[in-house]
Amino acid sequence: MTGTGLKSIRILAGPSALKQIKDRGFQPDDVHVVTGAAGGPKWLALSHIDRFLFSDWFKDRKKILHLVGASAGAWRLAAAATNDPNAAIGRFEDLYIAQQYALKPTAAQVTAKSNEIIAGYLGAHGIKEILNHPVHRLSILVNRCRGLLSVEHAHALKISIGTVGLSSVIYRNALTAFIDRFIGSDVRDPLPIVTSKKDQMYSLAPDNFAASLLASGSIPVVMSGVRDVAGTGSGMFRDGGLIDYHVDLPFALESGGLILCPHFLPKIIPGWFDRFAPWRRPRHADKTVLIVPSDSFIRKLPNGKIPCRKDFFSYAGRDAERKKIWKSSVAACKELADDFAEVVSSGMIGSVVEPLEPM
Fold first, then answer.
1. Which residue, 249, 275, 332, 351, shows the most beta carbons closer than 10 Å to its own?
2. What are 50-97's pLDDT values in tens digits?
3. Domain segments of the chain: what residues?
């Protein structure tokens, strides 16, 4: 960072968050909720920011901090919610980069590898640490699917996804005809959210934690769904990003509370199908603060982009090359964390924060 400028990141804020930061600055206790967007390997760009936030910026925090994510966002926040977030994030990063498959892996094979990754980075004590953490309160977003979305047949699933997607593009609430949002939350302090009639809360516990994480990332067709998650009743559960791609939720915040979202895009796309409805805007971003890589920084990364799921196909049969590129990208992204650390420690964030547009 040079003077009051940022060299690698942008900080974007909704109207109320923007005014508050310009008036009062930005302190760790201002953050009441941290959100984690879905997006597969894109999370790798954020691993060093997560390390800084949870091993440094929030380390002396006494106030409850809610963490809520979908899919890969839930997975990375679970690592951040452990007693040693730096170590857990490192394990998750290593295991995630190391995964590799046959040229055409089955859903069962990808699911088995995902279970290995979750078990590997949480270790023997991670779940207990998260559920007993003095400050962190993790919530996991999952979806119970109905109709053809609940079957394990690739052709039927593809037809169903097309139908659901088209319906959602026309009318987003059409999703509720096919999918119910479930929120696995900490029994001590459930996620402060204004729920709809269709939303269902359940308590995370040792017997459903890993299954909830797996379900939150279970992309239809790519992975198997997770059936009958304990505490939710019966049903087939799949990717939380279907409804909550970038976690645009109506949080019930205390006065002055803000939502922090380390992100890989300078915008919030509410649901996965909303990628095909670019006119659709987030509805609950008034108090949201995004930390995102700048376009100029992204252009300097290998291949000029952040790691993404398409890389598994682009480098099929060349996993060593993909792993090298991903590791190089992660190493370069330490600059993002350094940039954010400098701007918050200098107190100059009010001069660099930008409006989150469009609202």
1. 249
2. 999 999 999 999 999 999 999 999 999 999 999 999 999 999 999 999
3. 9-348
